Amino acid sequence: MPRIRTIIPGVDQKLLIKDAARMLPDPTRRLLLRGGLSLGALAVLGGCDIVDSDAAEGVLRKISKFNDRVQALLFNPNTLAPEYPESRITRPFPFNGYYAEDEAPEVDGKTYKLEVGGMIDNKEPWTLDKLYALPQVSQITRHVCVEGWSAIGSWQGVRLSEFLKRIGADTRAKYVWFQCAEGYSNTIDMATALHPQTQLSFKFDNQILPRKYGFPMKCRMPTKLGFKNPKYITAIYVQNNDAGGYWENQGYNWFSGL
Amino acid sequence: MASIDTSASATPHPVIHPVWVRLTHWINAFAMLVMIGSGWEIYNASPLFGFTFPGSITLGGWLAGALLWHFAAMWLLAVNGIVYVALGLATGRFHSKLLPIRPGEVIADTKAALAFKLAHDDLSKYNAVQRLLYAGIIVVAVVIVLSGLSIWKPVQLQWLTALFGGYDAARYVHFFCMAAIVGFLVVHVLLALIVPKSLRAMITGR
User: Cα–Cα distance between A210 and A213 in angstroms, integer?
Assistant: First the structure.
């Protein structure tokens, strides 16, 4: 095992310990991982001599890109994520973020304006009142975290495909990019953006989305891992360039489809 | 029990493991170690039980690194596994080496093995315990791949995930298959060290 252990991608070490610890939702688990990291990974990363870690990481990232393409092929735009009865909703639904719950962004709904841009016809920003007036749909689906755990939640909002139609988006564009209040961002493929269950959610369990779940707006995609579902959205751009994302840029798989 | 054979011409041993068996065996061994090591690191991000694997024996350093390794090695494991199973069936090797598996023989050979009375003179023939374990581990390998797919794609392959009893159940199945493989690995390596000519046969074929 020790030989293999040294073949580790050369991730920025400072980023690594900070962000890996942050990925975890609760402080006890955060500490466990931090301990594991300092003992194992970082010690090994420091003394990596058998295999060039940059080369190893390069190969692994290429395979991850290949996996993006495989997943795009596997993605069936007509396959719906399973929906569940209300009794199956996980209560309390966990808070997830790379920060503590009380550090979550506080967005003022009165002054909030959603910025829209890129390959669209109407770039006028959207107030919450205008957004709330859009036709709404509901789903009770499973949120699957990249860490492995899952939880069933209930979201209400407008289909992203409907919203894209309203802003005159060119849906031949390859990507939709989300910017969030806390600086989080990510990019998704157009096929997923147009999926019938991809939803700009204004409510959780029929209540206005509380701060901890992403007020004023989350993009719910039950066909993707949790971290691909941005919260506290402040801007949506339709574009042809892949602008990456917070976790994706650090090595998490870009497509992350379920 | 002569284990030193330097003469290349005299009386050549028959080939016990053809080259495709040896090749797929060692590729599988490498892929398995990567899958297990990275799998432990992934497990640590959200443990199913009240323990985690020490960072010193996991692969990937952190969750993203481990996932990169896991979803890279899966191709090696899958392609190699498909080649192995296809050739095993096509050449009749599975049939001739692994069957039949009779409970009475398994019990008798287990007793003999525990008393260190099991013969290993003819490496080309598996005893009943070997047949059971080798056939069993192939079944476990199939189940770990299928449960892994159902965790990876619980929407696109939701019929498969449902077959395992849902996403959460599939994670447990995946874990227990890993435990079975690790258990097998410990016994397998131990026995190969006790009977070194079996290890030689998996390298040179004879």
Answer: 6
Name every chain B residue with its beta carbon within 8 A of the beta carbon of A42: 61
Q: For the segment A150-160, what is each residue's pLDDT rounded down to a tens digit?
A: 999 999 999 99
Q: Report the alpha-carbon distance of residue A250 to residue A13 in Å, rounded.
A: 11
From the list B43, B54, B167, the residue facing A40 with the nearest CB is B54
Domains of chain A, residue spans: 2-73, 79-250
Residue with tokens 């047949």: B131
Rounded distance, CA A90 to CA A153, Å?
Answer: 6
Determine whether domain A79-250 maps to CATH 3.20.20.150: no
Place of tokens 């495709």: B20
Letter string b/e over residues A222-258, b meaning 16 or more CB atoms within 10 A of that residue's CB: bbbbbbbbbbbbbbbbbbeeebebbbbebbbbbbbbb
Other C-beta atoms closer than 10 Å to the C-beta of A71 total 21
B55–A40 C-beta distance less than 8 A: yes
**Whole-model pTM?**
0.84
Q: What is the dihedral of CA A227, A232, A234, A238, to 10 degrees?
A: 30
Residue B99 has pLDDT above 90, yes or no: no
Report the pLDDT value the prediction gives residue A8, as an integer from 0 to 100.
33
Q: What is the pLDDT of residues B141-189, one digit of tens each?
A: 999 999 999 999 999 999 999 999 999 999 999 999 999 999 999 999 9
Q: Which residues contact A18 (CB under 8 A, 6 or more apart)?
A: none
Give the domain ranges of chain B.
Answer: 16-74, 92-206
- Give every strand in the sheet of A185-189, ordered side by side: A126-127, A113-118, A233-239, A175-180, A185-189
Going by C-beta distance under 8 Å and a sequence separation of 6 or more, which residues neighbour residue B177?
A: B140, B141, B143, B144, B147
B57–A1 CB contact, under 8 Å: yes
In chain B, whose CA is at the least distance from the CA of A41? B61
Contacts of A150 in chain B (CB under 8 A): 167-168
Nearest to A186 by CA among A229, A236, A245: A245
What ipTM did this prediction achieve?
Answer: 0.86
